[in-house]
Write a structure and sequence with these properties.
mainly alpha
Length: 98
């Protein structure tokens, strides 16, 4: 979310869109640029946690409970990658309408 917002701020500082269509276009352009790195980072973390979550050997009684919140957090990140640009565009449109 922070990566998305930072890049959205940069795009809006460079372009300063004045219409709703321009805001949406800038948001889509910025989101397309940053979705891939965020998804790749989350995917590597999720894939790294799969063996830990499915382990049954020695030490798994400690590792599995520690991996569950990390796995859930990465799933939340996947959702936020798509929600943050929408909320950001909505906020900018609301400010433009006021």
């Amino acid at each position: 979310g922070v990566i998305q917002c930072t890049y959205l701020d940069q795009v809006f500082r460079e372009e300063t869109p004045g219409t709703i269509e321009a805001i949406r276009e800038a948001t889509i352009r910025a989101a397309e640029r940053r979705v891939r790195p965020c998804l790749m980072t989350s995917a590597t973390t999720i894939l790294a946690l799969v063996p830990v979550l499915t382990s049954v050997g020695r030490g798994s009684d400690v590792m599995v409970p520690m991996a569950i919140p990390s796995f859930g957090g990465m799933l939340v990140v996947l959702i936020s990658v798509f929600v943050v640009p929408v909320l950001y565009a909505g906020m900018k449109e609301w400010r433009l309408a006021r």
